[in-house]
Fold this sequence. Notes:
Number of helices: 9
Number of strands: 5
Strand order of the largest sheet: 2-1-5-4-3
Helix content: 55-70%
Strand content: 5-15%
Radius of gyration: 27 Å
Structural class: alpha+beta
Shape: elongated
Amino acid sequence: MTTPPGAGSGSGGLGDQALAQLHSLLLGTERVEEFLQDLVKLTATELNVSCGITIRPDGRPTTAAASDARVGRFDEAQYEAGRGPCLEALETGRPNLVPDMRDERRWDDYAPKSLEAGVLSVYALPLTPFGYQRPLGAMNLYSSEACTFDEVVRSEARSFATYAAGALGVALKIAGHVEFGQDLQAALRSRAVIDQALGVIMAQQRCSPDQAFEILRRISQNRNVKLHRVAAAIVQRVSGEPPRPGSVEPRGDGPSRRRQ
């Protein structure tokens, strides 16, 4: 496996042991959410901080993975304020560093909540997978000590964030393929029912396929009912039962076909 950018050994990135653990997580975890949960725990352990990942699936921020129970409290301080380093990283696509929350003046409504929760320094990293223009989430690193995130720690954090961004990218692509497949299956089923209705109209009206489709289209427009629903009603009226579009699975050369 190719090592992500910035994930090298030494002071410029992750050490060999951390890289080996990350590779083990990638190979041994079957679900993306499990990988993210294991990743934030490893990040927290390696950097001696609290770590969480924020996403916005419906426009509202939510914590997708947390290294410990404190992360939820830290994240909620930002969500309630509606502002903060994590949310700004999500909006701008740029990392956000808070060396000492006691000196922070950018988010007057968030800083007191953060200090009350016990956070003195924060490093928020946008998670933007390769090929995406906007972040899909953010990795939030919290420390109860000031000035925790020096250049060495930030470099290591960026390496962990690269893996998290990649995992989110894979998850989104998988979800997109599933949704596309479901839409395709639905479209094929509708097409099958429409074809059945066209056959009925052709037989009744003794017309061509194009003329039958025009008749079906006019009925759909006049009744303001979707085409496939009109087709289903025609088939049901003739057959006496709801249409059966049948399987729309790919017609591969399965065992039964090979025996024929």
